């Protein structure tokens, strides 16, 4: 009875863990790694054809994205997941395959010019089509025997429609252990989905730590914040552009916009248009509007009982084709544009930024995490220019971040989730967090709850009966990550300064039209401050 960590060990993405028990090899998640590596990646220690079962926590690509590659390698066993996760994977994995194939075409054209060999994508749409029939839809809080001696129960993780923690009860050689995977634990009080369900029993816990070193702070009134931004942007004659992840965050934005419309919170623009410009987001929104009643919160169910679709309203338009997308910016009427990708790395959002970033009238609202090095991060850090499609675009638009709207639980929420387990676990493994966060959160668990907690490395293997470490795994960091951590420590204070500067610019804008005497005094104070700190 062993557990081996193959992904998201001291890193945020690429979740993948292997359990050997009862003569079966059980893989929990098979995610794609996104962003820079901290440690060298681990390969599966066995052939994909030797994996017997996959258990999937949720549909996000960093948890599900390598399933078609597993199938392409020979895996043919069942993939257990909630019904909503199965539905979402149907569109997300196909979209991922299209991206892989498109990238392969581009790389092969480049390789041909350079006289290099062909590049093969990790998987194709055909591999996805072979993977989808392997899914076995499951419900929350029901027990499933996935193998002799192995029972599985899914609990609501509150992170994404259908997201789950997975409780695995293993009985082998007369010994029974309950191993609990948290999956991605959700934030509270979010639209559409319920708050995370708290676990009651576990001998061993594997818990995520994405926000294991920080607190979200007091929950803001996001509806009023969004309405205020729309009001001042439309009054200037501009567009509100929202880069948003196609699954989860787009639907949350639609919920807020429906409320704004219903309450008439934007004055003098009663019939304003909202465009969703992302084929994947449109497909996902269709699933959210379906018959998955077991996954919604009480407020959503009440709306549906009244015949109200919580994600639809007057003035909502869906753009599927490229031609429809291009017409959005050809129309000068102020509007809200929601498009992917959420970090502005690819997709139609880049076209909307090109058309709106240079406009003083427009606004760009960021509603999700922006990874280091992405265009979204560059914009939010205060860049004056950004290159899009080979053209330097000056950033004149109002840039706003909606803070605290994360889909992940923060440090205190994760501790509270663990505290609910009646008999303290024997051991907690901390993963799915940056290297230093995993380590810090493991110490927090030990200090606050008195529970043994470790942050395993990629390739670490443990005996589940005794908790003993069998293999340490890869403890050597990539050199670039060592340098990055030094830069991270040095830049934290600068990040706070940058935020303060952005706040100052917002205050300046709000004082437009104030009395000349007050503006002169304000200007003098700013100039005195600048003189003090000029280098």
Explain the overall architecture.
- The radius of gyration is 24 Å and the shape is globular.
- Strands 6-5-4-3-2-1-22-23 form an 8-stranded mixed beta sheet.
- The protein starts with a strand and ends with a helix.
- The protein is built from 15 helices and 23 strands.
- Helix 5 packs across helix 6 (249-262).
- It folds into 3 domains: 2-215 and 406-477, Ribonuclease Z/Hydroxyacylglutathione hydrolase-like (Metallo-beta-lactamase, Chain A, 4-Layer Sandwich); 222-401, Rossmann fold (3-Layer(aba) Sandwich), CATH 3.40.50; 494-533.
- The chain has helices spanning 61-64, 67-72, 83-114, 125-131, 222-236, 249-262, 279-288, 298-305, 322-330, 349-356, 375-380, 411-419, 435-449, 479-510, 516-533, and strands spanning 2-7, 16-21, 24-30, 53-55, 79-82, 135-138, 143-147, 150-156, 164-172, 175-181, 204-208, 240-243, 273-277, 316-318, 335-339, 363-366, 385-388, 391-394, 398-401, 427-431, 453-454, 461-463, 469-471.
- The protein is an alpha/beta fold and 535 residues long.
């Amino acid at each position: 009875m062993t557990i081996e960590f193959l992904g998201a060990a001291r890193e945020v993405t690429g979740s993948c863990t292997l359990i050997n028990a009862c003569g079966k090899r059980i893989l929990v998640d098979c995610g794609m790694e996104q962003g820079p590596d901290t440690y060298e990646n681990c390969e599966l220690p066995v052939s994909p054809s030797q994996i017997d079962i996959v258990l999937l926590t949720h549909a996000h690509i960093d948890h599900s994205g390598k399933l078609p590659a597993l199938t392409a390698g020979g895996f043919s066993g069942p993939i257990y997941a909630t019904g909503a996760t199965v539905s979402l994977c149907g569109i997300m994995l196909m979209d991922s395959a299209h991206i892989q194939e498109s990238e392969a075409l581009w790389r092969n054209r480049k390789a041909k010019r350079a006289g290099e060999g062909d590049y093969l994508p990790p998987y194709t749409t055909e591999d996805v089509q072979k993977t989808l029939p392997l899914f076995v839809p499951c419900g929350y809080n029901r027990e499933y025997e996935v193998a002799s001696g192995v029972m599985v129960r899914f609990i609501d993780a509150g992170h994404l429609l259908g997201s789950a923690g997975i409780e695995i009860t293993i009985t082998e050689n007369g010994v029974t252990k309950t191993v609990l995977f948290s999956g991605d634990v959700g934030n509270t009080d979010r639209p559409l989905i319920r708050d995370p369900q708290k676990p009651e029993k576990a001998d061993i816990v594997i818990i995520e730590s994405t926000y294991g070193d920080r607190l979200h702070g007091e929950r803001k009134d996001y509806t009023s914040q969004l309405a205020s931004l729309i009001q001042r942007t439309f009054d200037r004659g501009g567009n509100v552009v929202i880069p948003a992840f196609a699954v989860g965050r787009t639907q949350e934005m639609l919920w807020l916009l429906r409320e704004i419309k219903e309450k008439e919170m934007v004055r003098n623009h009663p019939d304003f248009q909202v465009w969703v410009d992302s084929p994947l987001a449109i497909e996902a929104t269709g699933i959210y509007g379906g018959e998955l009643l077991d996954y919604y919160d009480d407020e959503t169910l009440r709306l549906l009982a009244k015949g109200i679709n919580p994600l639809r309203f007057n003035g909502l338009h869906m753009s599927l084709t490229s031609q429809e997308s291009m017409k959005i910016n050809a129309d000068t009427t102020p509007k809200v544009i929601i498009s992917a990708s959420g970090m502005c790395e690819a997709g139609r959002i880049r076209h909307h930024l090109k058309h709106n970033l240079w406009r003083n009238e427009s606004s760009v609202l960021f509603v999700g995490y922006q990874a280091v090095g992405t265009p979204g991060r560059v914009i939010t850090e205060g860049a004056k220019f950004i290159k899009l499609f080979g053209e330097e675009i000056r950033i004149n638009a109002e840039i706003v971040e909606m803070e605290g709207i994360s889909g992940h639980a923060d440090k205190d929420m994760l501790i509270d989730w663990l505290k609910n387990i009646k008999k303290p676990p024997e051991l907690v493994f901390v993963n799915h967090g940056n290297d230093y966060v995993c380590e810090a959160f493991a110490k927090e668990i030990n200090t606050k709850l008195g529970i043994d907690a470790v942050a395993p490395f990629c390739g670490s293997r443990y005996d589940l009966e005794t908790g003993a470490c069998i293999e340490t795994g890869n403890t050597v960091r990539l050199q670039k990550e060592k340098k990055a951590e030094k830069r991270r420590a040095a830049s934290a204070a600068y990040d706070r300064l940058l935020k303060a500067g952005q706040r100052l610019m917002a205050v300046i804008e709000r004082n437009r039209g104030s009395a000349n005497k007050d503006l002169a005094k304000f200007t003098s104070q700013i100039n005195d401050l600048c003189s003090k700190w000029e280098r």
